[in-house]
Design a protein that fits this description.
The chain is 55% helix and 13% strand. By secondary structure, the protein is an alpha/beta fold.
Length: 174
Amino acid sequence: METNVVLVGFSGAGKSTLGKQAAPLLGLRFVDLDHYIEQKLQYSVPQLFSQFGELVFRKCEYDALQELLEEDGQLIAVGGGAPCYAQAMPLILERSLSVYVKLSEEVLVNRLAHSKKRRPLTVDLSDDELRRYVHETLQRRAPYYEQAHLIIERDDLTPEALAEAIRKRLNASS
């Protein structure tokens, strides 16, 4: 497949987990943008946030995304805030098939509350603060996510269903 697919959506939506399993079904190489940045810069995402701040992290994220989108044949999972920085969403729209993995607020809050992964923006929040953070941040980010070429709104999305929806969309476009 000579294209890229970029999964966008809120933290905890399952982009990395779904993407890792859906990529081989589509004949694509899976890339998690956070892991790519960590390997390239030799800092973990939490370290980047704490030592340099969110703005520096977003710049690194944007630069890495630009770099990745110069090659074809990848399914890329980006962080929840990545499409909202600078010209990231226009770049994603121009150079890939973008897919918004859309989950309900309730499921996102539940997943983030029980996540073993340290997420810099939610790590120290109480349950009420987390619920408020998800609601408010989702309101701000939704206009970016909603621009995606394909929106899949399912709390029970499987890698197979994701791959099938992407395959259908790509076949319809060609």
